[in-house]
Amino acid sequence: MEASAVRRAALQCILFPLLTSAALPSAHAYCFTSSCGQEQPICEPAENEPCGVALRWKRECVGYAIQQNGTASLSLTDIQVSVRSAFDAWSLAGCETGDYPGIDVIDMGLVSCNKAEFNESAGNVNVVTFLDDSWPYPDNGEALALTTVTYANKSGEILDADIEVNTAMFKLTVAETTKDYDLTGVLTHEAGHFYGMAHSLDQESTMHGDALPGSTDLRSLTLDDTSGICTLYPSKTINYEACNPLPIHGFASECAAEQWKESCSVAPSAAGHAPPTWWRSWAVAAGLGAAIWARRAQRRKRIPKPVINPDRLRPTSRSNAMSLDGR
What we know:
Elements lengths: L5 E6 L19 E4 L2 E7 L17 E7 L8 H16 L12 E8 L15 E4 L14 E8 L5 E8 L6 E2 L7 E2 H13 L14 E2 L11 H10 L44 H10 L2 H11 L22 E2 L4
Parallel strand pairs: 4-5, 4-6, 6-8, 9-10
Antiparallel strand pairs: 1-7, 2-3, 7-8, 11-12
Helix pairs in contact: 1-2
């Protein structure tokens, strides 16, 4: 795919002043990220004439992986459970049709790549990574996390999505009771961006774009969030025997700079080099069977009806809310 055909967009927004008391949400206020850019989302109800097309994955299964170093403040097990819970909040949402959204995500394990990047001539990975040492986005210094999506300009097909968590500047936890920011809630919001959701007009939704320290509300979707994901990915039965979670150009644990690229002029040595990315994809695929079948069994469980957490509708002071994706 030529470079002119794809676009990278860091999904972020300005944190506008928040009201001291939250208004009740409208019936629908969700938004989708548009191929015209993050400043022109496609919303329901529409605020302006829609521009472009909504970004979405055009496959039933999408893979993700966690950067193997995690963060010093949490165990790798806690991180894995938190990330899985965040993605499940969306892929296991109960649609009005009585089924799940028509997309699922598969855990591809741990990887070494710690960068948000899309490689047009090498392997890829949709990575969740934690930046403990420094946060390289000075224009978004108060962001708790950032999701970068690469998509095809014309079709709006998402080709790659990477989530970076700002553990250099913020303490995040998975504890149920805490004064810190809730990692699972932050990741649930970022997972919404991963799927193609934009910031919602509903101040109480997970996709609104701000987080309160000590609150775990963002872990569970509101009716607005659920309506959005079920509209973007209409419910269907996923064929797990046929779905392919491998990224475009194949799966790679390493970032592009560390990947060995096959050369026509230099023969690979007998030792010291890993097989090329497109060969390794087959090995990865062979090990995905258990994960895919586990997801198939989980999605067969009874779907609970979506509910609104009453606590999220009560007026509350949100003057100390922090932006999830930038300021």
